[in-house]
Specification:
By secondary structure, this protein is of the alpha/beta class.
């Protein structure tokens, strides 16, 4: 298999996922685990996403930047900065602008659903303007959520249409293909040429046989409907999803060589301006 770019991974401490002997892993241990998974699964480059808030389990964007630099993996790991209205400040956005200018981060992510605002809330416009200015993508959480405190009406993929129409120069990534509203996601992709989607986080842990069949059919349906393989991106959502199981899943999608290479490598390389 050719090299792979995983455009959606985390270094968060998730309950039960990042623990050994009931002890939470340190940030360095989590990075080491990511690198080991990358080596074992032929991942040439991963994009780390910081979270919708910062606490002992969710490292900040600056913490991710620092630990990647410290370990000298900037050629293999990029960072996308999380931003929310409730938990971040204009000082954060000032830093993000400088980091984008210096190519230290690759984009910005919004956590609609986890944050109880629609993506077309006017307070997000400053973030869209920054992404347009620097030609970087905005990643937006769509679909199901990993927290019972989140509200899914804010994460429905149909909400993305407003953003795409009002900001035609903005490159938008719908995370998780809007699962379970995948049909709505594919309509947004079909209608708006500035919208992309990653296939991350469709399962927790490993794919079951039935889950593999279900999502394989859904992804093939997207490509048939949209008729453009250039706007789907590979992502796993590791460590929520098992990286090896995800690679096994996509290998069995039976794509032609061109579509497979676009999904797994070329689309993300171009969108996130990755030098490999």
């Amino acid at each position: 298999m050719s090299s792979i770019i995983d455009c959606h991974v985390h270094l968060n401490n998730y309950d039960g996922l990042n623990k050994t002997e009931n002890k939470a892993l340190s940030l360095q241990e989590r990075l080491d685990a990511l690198l080991e998974n990358m080596e074992n699964n032929n991942i040439a480059y991963s994009i780390l996403l910081s979270s919708y808030k910062v606490d002992e389990n969710r490292p900040s964007t600056s913490q991710l930047i620092d630990i990647v630099k410290k370990n000298k993996y900037i050629d293999r790991i990029g960072v996308v900065a999380g931003f929310t209205i409730d938990n971040h400040t204009h000082e954060d956005l000032k830093n993000y602008k400088q980091w984008l200018k210096d190519d230290i981060i690759k984009g910005i992510k919004l956590y609609c659903g986890y944050e109880h605002y629609y993506p077309y809330d006017e307070r997000y416009q400053v973030v869209y303007d920054i992404c347009i200015e620097f030609g970087c993508p905005i990643m937006i959480h769509t679909g199901d959520v990993f927290s019972q405190r989140a509200k899914v009406k804010y994460s429905h993929p149909l909400n993305i249409d407003d953003i795409a129409v009002d900001n035609p120069e903005l490159k938008i990534v719908m995370c998780h293909i809007g699962n379970p509203w995948i049909t709505d996601c594919q309509e947004i992709l079909y209608k708006n040429k500035n919208v992309y989607a990653d296939i991350s986080g469709l399962i927790v842990g490993n794919f079951t046989i039935s889950g593999r069949t279900h999502y394989a059919n859904k992804i093939k349906e997207i490509l048939n409907y949209v008729d453009d393989p250039h706007r789907l991106l590979y992502g796993s959502d590791w460590p929520i999803s098992n990286m090896n199981s995800y690679i096994d899943f996509v290998q069995k999608l039976e794509f032609d060589e061109k579509s497979f290479d676009l999904l797994m490598f070329k689309n993300a390389k171009s969108l996130f301006k990755i030098s490999l």
